[in-house]
């Protein structure tokens, strides 16, 4: 398209590289692509959708939508299959629709060349020049997200690191506060913070060595990413301690989510080590809570779980209500290993 000029593309790059949060960066990317494709004709582009894999449901789900909702039927088996094929192959694909604009599927890859998302652009026209610009923009995006991930991720497990936690939890609290003020649908969602600790992990290191211990941590983290949703951030806090933040539709969801993971860990056969269990403590995230207070509350619930049999999940607010814990007081000397 002749209307695509250097100034326009550079402005898109400035917008993208101004972000430091991957989720916000994805939103900026979708908006930039929408503007770019519609530069010559606003009616040309219908939508830009970023699809993420949902490991728990073995399918690709729309995470970000810019523009009109996609005109194609979301239940279309042929479109779903093409999404899966594109994700597996990592190759550009086109989905032709009757009486509607074609949908072009662009795979987004990480530093290891693994496809991590699919960008679907529904537009009537996409010339070779525009196609080339989109590909170049995606390569720059992939390089930039690689730099962010290197800074945000734990080296061993690939999970978010402790340094990233404060930024993420504060962002969630701000979103909750804004939703409460606007009385939006998001205000009906409930959030929880959980701390996970591998039971008797010190014994693993003592009996099998730190190399095997690291393998247990890596496999444990992989079980977490397989079990939990991609939009529920998981952090490694150090050693065998992990933190997760979960958005739920009701209070009944969270114990099921956490216990499903606990059972999955208990059933997994760790090489050389065998069976391993996990304990967790969790607390509800209230709109005007403090990150340090949330960690303290979840930690108290974890201490209680460790001191009362291990391989269990404990809810801080329920422990307080039942009189099993007192506010701001830990229950005696507790072995964490």
TrEMBL record:
InterPro entries listed in its UniProt record: Diguanylate_Cyclase, GGDEF_dom, Nucleotide_cyclase, Rev_trsase/Diguanyl_cyclase
CDD domains linked to this entry: GGDEF (cd01949)
SMART domains xref list: GGDEF
All copies of domain GGDEF, residue ranges: 189-318
Name of a matching Pfam family: GGDEF
GO process annotations (BP): cell adhesion involved in single-species biofilm formation; negative regulation of bacterial-type flagellum-dependent cell motility
EC number of this enzyme: 2.7.7.65
A single GO cellular-component term on record: plasma membrane
SUPFAM superfamilies: Nucleotide cyclase (SSF55073)
Signal sequence range: none
Gene3D superfamilies in UniProt: 3.30.70.270
Catalytic activity: 2 GTP = 3',3'-c-di-GMP + 2 diphosphate
GO MF annotation terms: diguanylate cyclase activity
Protein name, as recorded: diguanylate cyclase
Source organism (scientific name): Methylotenera versatilis (strain 301)
